[in-house]
Amino acid sequence: MVYPALYNGPINYFARLVREEKIVLEQHENYTKQTFRNRCVIMGPNGPLALSIPVKRKRGAKTLMKDIRPDEDTPWRKIHWRSLVAAYAASPFFQYIRDDLAVLYEKRHAFLIDLNRELLARCLSVLGREIPVQLSGSFSPMEVKTDPRYLIHPKRDPGIHDPLFRAVPYHQVFSDRHGFIPNLSILDLLFNEGYNALPLLEKSLRT
Hints:
alpha/beta; 3-stranded parallel β-sheet
């Protein structure tokens, strides 16, 4: 199975990853806008909040995922980190996890896929899953009905398009205002549930 290289991907993404013995991230696909490859959704004080990384690429030209660069001419790293602090400073496990993530938001990455890969490995480590993560050597054809590169998308409701996923409720910051919001970024689950996140992920995918 080949997985898309997502930016702090959602729960239905990590529910699959934690079951793997080895993870292969697709780097030879054509990059497309408005996907989780450069954005994640967290729970902010005013509800779900999308954090998007601006990227550099030639306008109108197809660019492989491996060649996409974050636009470091913008202060996106500071904006994203401040948004995470504003959203989760009061969450039960933020103080235990923040340092593991903060260092990656202080670091410049030449390519988006390198950032996503490092964040993925860091989140897996917090989950207690030390799984090797490597990049694909070539493009693998996509099986639309089961392929996570197709299924895991901001515009595809996992309750409809992902038959294996089931949302397992957990406590969320601001749930008193907005109720439970399923399938947010893995960071939402980690900050709210900490070391109990792995059992919740294991329950989130039907076998």
